[in-house]
Specification:
The protein is built from 1 helix and 23 strands. With 477 residues, the protein is mostly beta strands. It has an 18-stranded antiparallel barrel. The protein has a 3-stranded antiparallel sheet with strand order 4-9-10, with no helix packed on it. A two-stranded antiparallel sheet has the order 15-16. The two termini are 39 Å apart. Mean pLDDT is 88; it is low at 1-27.
Length: 477
């Protein structure tokens, strides 16, 4: 899949290819492993990121242009035998001419509430995290990870949606470290909520709001001047199992991640009206092998499934309150399925100047059932890339990277149903071939680091480019 969105990264290494948005899941750190480190630092990173371009077929949720500013502070301290970790992050993003962005992360659910009118959006995020690691003796250590983040999003043109999202995470962990072998386990729970409220300021124009059930199948209705509210609640349980093996200069590390997520959507203030339930499974395994500083190999696989269920509801008059309420009949009906898989393999050679060669392979299969019809889409794509990391003296670090996205399989139902144009645009984005190039530069002097990154994506099947520029300034205390 084409990777058109960059995040802010420390510029001392090649920027890795970002994971597709619909596959993003947070993998936490086992805080019991803090006891394996013996460092104290405070790092502050300031960044600015902008992107623009004339891609004819882009991600349907991506604004035409985007500008974002970030601030990130990370601290690692030692208090006696206790290891402490803290992090605070803030970002503010402005997106130009955005459409269909009803949720902060629209990829995590097939049940969307959205409108098609292009408008500017603002997205503000706050992230806080605290970690503690405590040695217990005999090679054992325990840790605790706590995190809380808030996101606020608003569209500044009718139809106007205001979103407020929150996630709270708690994850205890343990670790055992021997002379050559170590193993750790952390288990966690994440509680998330997001509220969206639609409104309009103009009273003489009727806009259309779309309720989408999966694969852009749904219904649209005139909004009028009333407000529409929806609540999304999620519960996620996860676990990570880490193993380490060190024999001289050979270091082998593996992390296995497993998570289960449940989401419900309901209309606020409308007497138990339900919109859907989502169940998701994710498992991921990442393996790395390092031989001194001259060779490193990394490989991994990511696999996720998502199931969507629609309730059978009917509005009836409550005999006691004399108020019409929504009544649910039977079990929810299975209507949507999504299976996503990603594999990657990457090799890095060289003790000083480093050459990186790698490839990613992605597969997506999703389907929606509206009895008696069933709509399917499947695609597969591979992305090879090569990079060069060039240290110049004590102060400069340069990095070059180029790659090619090639779609080698595409199967989809071509029936015309409601909202087919957005679905076709998204499919063209996923399956269109493209080439990218990237250049990064980093300057370090004392406790200060300045970085710059430029990336361009060029489509090969149609005219269009996407440019992205990032500037960072890091400070160590």
């Amino acid at each position: 899949m084409k990777k058109l969105h960059l995040t802010f990264l420390l510029a001392l290494c090649l920027l890795p290819l970002s994971r597709p948005a619909f596959a993003q899941e947070l993998v936490t750190r086992n805080m019991a492993r803090l006891t394996l480190e013996d460092s104290t630092y405070v790092n502050v990173l300031l960044g600015a990121h902008g992107e623009n371009g004339d891609f004819q077929e882009k991600d349907i949720y991506m604004p035409e242009a985007m500008l974002c500013g970030t601030m990130d502070a990370t601290s690692r301290q030692t208090l006696g035998k206790v290891r402490l970790f803290g992090h605070f992050g803030y970002s503010y993003e402005i997106g130009k001419r955005s459409t269909w962005r009803g949720w902060i992360n629209p990829y995590e659910t097939p049940f969307m509430l959205a409108d098609s009118i292009p408008g500017d959006i603002s997205l503000e995020r706050y992230a806080m995290q605290a970690g503690l690691g405590l040695p217990l003796g005999g090679g054992w250590s325990a840790g605790l990870d706590l995190a809380y983040d808030v996101a606020l999003m608003a569209k500044h043109k009718d139809l106007r949606n205001k979103n407020t999202g929150m996630n709270f995470r708690v994850a205890p962990g343990i670790h055992w470290q021997g002379r050559h072998f170590g193993a750790g386990l952390d288990l966690g729970y994440v509680r998330g909520t997001e509220r969206v409220e639609y409104s309009q300021e103009s009273s003489n124009v009727e806009h259309v709001l779309f309720a989408i059930y999966g694969m852009w199948v749904g219904q649209g209705y005139g909004f009028g001047s009333a407000e529409t509210k929806r609540l999304k609640e999620t519960d996620r349980y996860f676990g990570n199992f880490q193993t380490d093996l060190q024999l001289g200069d050979v270091v082998l590390h593996n992390n296995f991640h497993l998570s289960w997520r449940r989401e419900t959507q309901s209309e606020t203030g409308y007497n138990n009206l339900q919109h859907g339930t989502v169940r998701s499974w994710i498992w991921q395994d990442d393996l790395s092998l390092a031989v001194g500083t001259a060779f490193q190999a990394e490989a991994g696989i990511y696999w996720a499934t998502m199931q969507g269920f629609r309730p059978l509801q009917q509005q009836e008059l409550d005999p006691d309150s004399k108020i019409r309420i929504w009544v649910t009949y039977g079990d929810p009906v299975f209507c949507y399925f999504n299976a996503y898989q990603r594999e990657y393999l990457r090799f890095t050679f060289g003790p000083s100047w480093k050459v990186t060669v790698g490839a990613e392979n992605t597969r997506l299969n999703h389907a929606y059932t509206e009895y008696p019809q069933r709509f399917d889409q499947r695609f597969s794509a591979v992305q090879p890339y090569v990079g060069l990391d060039l240290p110049l003296g004590q102060a400069w670090q340069l990095a070059l990277q180029t790659g090619y996205h090639y779609s080698y399989e595409e199967v989809h139902d071509i029936s015309k149903w409601q909202l087919a144009p957005p679905l076709e645009q998204q499919l063209n984005f996923w399956t269109g071939n493209s080439v990218f190039g990237q250049f990064s530069a980093c300057w370090t002097r004392g406790r200060m680091t300045l970085g710059m990154d430029y990336r361009v994506d060029a489509a090969t099947a149609f005219d269009g480019f996407r440019h992205a520029v990032s500037l960072t300034a890091g400070f160590a205390f």
